[in-house]
Design a protein that fits this description.
Largest sheet: 9 strands, mixed
Helix content: 25-40%
Strand content: 5-15%
Radius of gyration: 26 Å
Structural class: alpha/beta
Number of strands: 22
Mean pLDDT: 94
Low-confidence stretches: none
């Protein structure tokens, strides 16, 4: 390998690629944050303008700010998007084209994980989606004959070292897989981003790994930051239930989103405000104190030994759990030492080495808020060294040469993931719809579910909301059957809704059905039970216990309302990217969506809004440019918003 070429413009970088490669470019780009948008857009535009060339892209999670929509939604989103993502953020051209199914004929984009729900209606994105486990992606990319890798990297200001930072997940595995097959090494172009946190360990690579390193002068493009979403009463209940399954001294994997935020907050409450946490558990699930649940699965106590994090992704939740002392159990890649720890025979020297060199968090990529990126950047280098960014093959699977050490490190593992729907027989729907359209992707979920069954004392926990509302119509998220599944019923394990925990592992179909009915929304439980009876899977004389009939959103909100009001369960437990006024507006806009599901409902609500009297939230109306409405349309919008603000105050 030779010293990489230093490049200072995206156009020069594209020139370099065109000089080194023939007319056909097969590009691999990291998922999420590791994509250098300006450089990739420059390449895309040059190929799009030259029909003699072709570009095939293999990637995942091409992050793009939300579309602005129309009406009140646009009035809210446009100022927020401009502020949060910044005027200098450049969306990926291929994602904008995919939304319109308007990719040029000489460009193909193949993704194995989509930004959730963003491309449901894109024929091009749906046709070229690749359904594949995260751990098999490097194999798939190699089979496509990748001849170019483009990746964003970080550089240490003092040493000049380069790091794959947020995305060592697939790059190293891909290079090794291509070498194993005897395929030519791809051209590798890196772009240094000054704000990307420098991560050590496996993420650090020699500069000679790259053929060219791009350092752009001037202001850097903002890092894509996910807006933190509010957490509902149902999501808090799920997080509280989930937190009781975690054993002190165990291992934790969590994903991203409101349910993961709720779980992270509940674990923090359990450790830092334990008496109040136990009071909450008494309210949400009083039966847990008396059950044998915690003897076999988890606990309610503080985390004295702490947890080890082994997650394909780290985000804000892990930041808070590290800061409050929940994530602190260190591990080393030393089988003998880890065995002594497991046996209780570790020496003082072992423990000193573990404290000095051990790591308490392993992950394959990261993505989060501006606060999270700032936290990583500002960690002292020794503290940052305790976070091991590594290959996805080291995280999402046991096989491949690391099984002995992984089994010792990942004791009492709890792998928490979310799903959209479940069946009464324990299958889960997480990534797509029964018509074949993909909402997001399988990612690593199947890997972690299978790993939980393979690890001694490991458990897979799927979290979901028991009901959902579309256009004002409520429906059950527990179904008898569905035309698409992500996790098959033979891998069923633990499932959690806002109404409880269902332990499905090794249970008969009838026991599984009863357990799922016990955590279903009461409005749908009779119909579900009747369907199971007709199929001969549930006894004909089975009766729904009266306790299950209290499983309604209103009952749950009433139980949690005092804790919401006292601030123990805040709307944004891990911090917010929205101002206080915007938070009020988000609640109001959510209420409007829920109450205008039909044309008739819209007309009725407009009539009610026009005749309504009461306090006016002038700050909220000003934020929406409706303080002085012009014309009938803006007047109706202002009245509707005012009514919604009153109802959600």
């Amino acid at each position: 390998m030779t010293t990489p070429l230093a490049i200072t413009s995206v156009e020069a970088a594209v020139d370099f690629v065109f000089e080194r490669l023939d007319q056909t470019i097969v590009l691999a780009a990291p998922l999420g944050l590791g994509k250098p948008h300006r450089l990739l857009n420059a390449l895309y535009r040059r190929v799009a303008a030259d029909p003699t060339r072709s570009l095939s892209v293999s990637t995942a999670l091409s992050l793009t700010p939300p579309p602005l929509g129309a009406g009140l939604e646009r009035r809210f989103l446009q100022p927020f998007v401009e502020r949060h993502f910044g005027a200098d953020f450049e969306p990926l051209d291929w994602t904008l084209a995919q939304r319109r199914s308007a990719l040029p004929a000489n460009i193909r984009v193949e993704e194995f994980y989509l930004q959730s729900g963003a491309l449901l209606n894109s024929s091009q994105a749906q046709r070229s989606y690749t359904s594949i486990n995260y751990t098999h992606v490097a194999r798939a990319m190699a089979s496509r004959g990748v001849n170019l890798i483009v990746q964003r990297v970080a550089q240490d200001a003092s040493s000049g070292e380069l790091s794959l930072s947020c995305n060592p997940d697939l790059t190293l595995d891909l290079l090794d897989e291509m070498a194993r097959r005897g395929l030519p090494r791809p051209l590798f172009v890196a772009e240094v981003h000054p704000d990307l946190p420098f991560m050590g360990g496996d993420a650090v690579v020699a500069a000679e790994l790259f053929d060219a390193v791009v350092r752009l002068p001037g202001k850097s493009e903002p890092l894509f930051a996910l807006p933190r979403q509010p957490v509902s009463a149902a999501e808090f209940a799920i997080g509280l239930y989930a937190s009781t399954l975690v054993r002190d001294g165990g291992t934790l994997q969590i994903g991203i989103g409101a349910l993961s935020d709720a779980l992270s907050h509940a674990l923090r409450l359990r450790h830092c405000r334990n008496s109040e946490y136990r009071g909450l558990i008494d309210v949400v699930a009083p039966e847990l104190h008396q059950s044998a649940l915690h003897c076999g699965w988890g606990g309610l106590g503080e985390f004295n030994e702490g947890l080890f994090g082994a997650s394909e992704m780290i985000t804000d939740g892990f930041m808070h759990l590290v800061d409050c002392g929940v994530i602190k159990r260190r591990v080393l890649a030393d089988v003998a030492l880890m065995q002594r720890l497991f046996d209780g025979s570790a020496t003082a020297s072992d423990r000193a080495r573990l404290e000095r060199d051990g790591q308490y968090l392993h992950a394959a990529f990261f993505l989060g808020s501006p606060d999270f990126y700032r936290w990583l950047r500002e960690l002292p280098r020794t503290a940052r060294a305790a976070i091991g960014m590594t290959r996805v093959s080291n995280i999402n699977q046991l096989y491949g040469g690391r099984e002995s050490i992984d089994r010792l490190q990942r004791r009492d593992a709890r792998f928490f993931n979310t799903c959209m729907m479940t069946t009464l027989l324990g299958a889960a729907v997480s990534d797509g719809l029964e018509d074949g359209r993909v909402v997001s992707g399988v990612g690593g979920q199947y890997n972690f579910v299978a790993m939980a069954h393979a690890l001694e004392e490991g458990r897979s926990v799927l979290m979901f909301r028991a009901s959902r509302e579309t256009a004002g119509h409520a429906s059950s998220s527990v179904l008898w059957n569905y035309g698409h599944i992500t996790i098959p019923r033979h891998l069923r394990d633990i499932v959690i809704s806002e109404y409880g925990i269902a332990d499905l592992r090794d249970k008969s179909d009838e026991d599984c059905i009863e357990a799922m009915l016990s955590i279903s929304d009461a409005r749908f439980v009779d119909a579900l039970a009747d369907t199971a009876k007709r199929a001969g899977k549930l006894a004909a004389d089975f009766q729904i216990p009266e306790a299950w009939r209290t499983h309604t959103p209103d009952q749950l909100m009433c139980r949690l309302r005092p804790y919401r009001q006292m601030g123990l369960l805040p709307d944004y437990p891990l911090g917010s990217d929205f101002s206080e006024v915007e938070q009020r507006l988000l609640r109001a806009l959510g209420w409007l969506r829920a109450n205008t599901g039909s044309r008739l409902a819209q007309v009725r609500l407009i009539a009610k809004a026009l005749s309504s009297r009461g306090a006016v939230d002038t700050a909220a109306l000003s934020r929406m440019a409706l303080a002085a409405p012009a014309g009938i349309g803006e007047t109706i919008a202002a009245k509707l918003l005012t009514l919604a603000l009153r109802r959600t105050a």
